[in-house]
Design the sequence.
């Protein structure tokens, strides 16, 4: 009798383990999206904003879909056998712009279904192609760096969070700079704090939170065997 008979069971076990890991990433990413939306809500209220619950629901759907898709995408790269750094970087490169565009569609769809009133003032935003490229580079870099950090003996929670924060500061600074330049060209004045603060929160907390999600799920997987 061949010794290779148990191989299908081993493959099924590996598939089940991957499924459980990705499910944990998805659930934690959903919580991350909700948490960031709460932070944005508090920041807006502190500046005197009065958002409606329907607009908050649409924004939450956008945050949750974005966080889930991009974090799960990078997690898939980690699960692929071979060079973890390359795989995570490549999946981050692909999932970043994909998640960005899907989140926009979700936001628009939920907003239309709930009849969210359009903004009364023009909102300064970068072109979709520019943001898509930035997201590709940002999460490609984040995936590659997390893949490298996770292989180091010192690559624990603090190292993952610090890596995510560093990536967020670099690309968040880039998004702020480009958006501020666009505001100067369009309105002749710098970006208002009410617009700058959400950029800072989104562009720094999301990559840091995603790095923490990846570390947490990897730690849970190792402890559960």
Sequence:
């Amino acid at each position: 009798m061949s010794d290779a008979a148990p191989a299908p069971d081993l493959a099924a076990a590996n598939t089940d383990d991957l499924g459980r890991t990705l499910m944990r990433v998805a659930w934690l990413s959903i919580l991350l999206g909700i948490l960031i939306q709460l932070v944005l809500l508090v920041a807006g209220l502190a500046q005197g904003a009065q958002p409606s619950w329907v607009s908050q629901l649409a924004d939450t759907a956008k945050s949750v879909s974005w966080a889930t898709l991009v974090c799960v995408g990078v997690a898939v790269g980690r699960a692929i056998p071979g060079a973890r750094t390359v795989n995570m970087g490549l999946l981050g490169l692909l999932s970043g712009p994909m998640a960005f565009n899907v989140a926009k569609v979700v936001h628009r769809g939920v907003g239309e279904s709930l009849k969210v009133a359009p903004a009364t003032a023009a909102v300064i935003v970068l072109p979709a192609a520019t943001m898509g490229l930035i997201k590709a580079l940002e999460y490609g870099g984040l995936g590659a760096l997390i893949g490298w950090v996770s292989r180091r003996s010192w690559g624990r929670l603090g190292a993952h969070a610090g890596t995510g924060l560093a990536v967020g500061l670099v690309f968040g600074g880039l998004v702020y700079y480009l958006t501020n330049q666009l505001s100067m060209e369009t309105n002749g004045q710098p970006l208002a704090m009410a617009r700058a603060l959400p950029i800072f929160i989104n562009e720094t907390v999301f990559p840091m939170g995603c790095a923490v999600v990846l570390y947490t799920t990897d730690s849970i997987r190792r402890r559960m065997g």
Remarks:
- The chain has six helices and no strands.
- The longest helix spans residues 7-46.
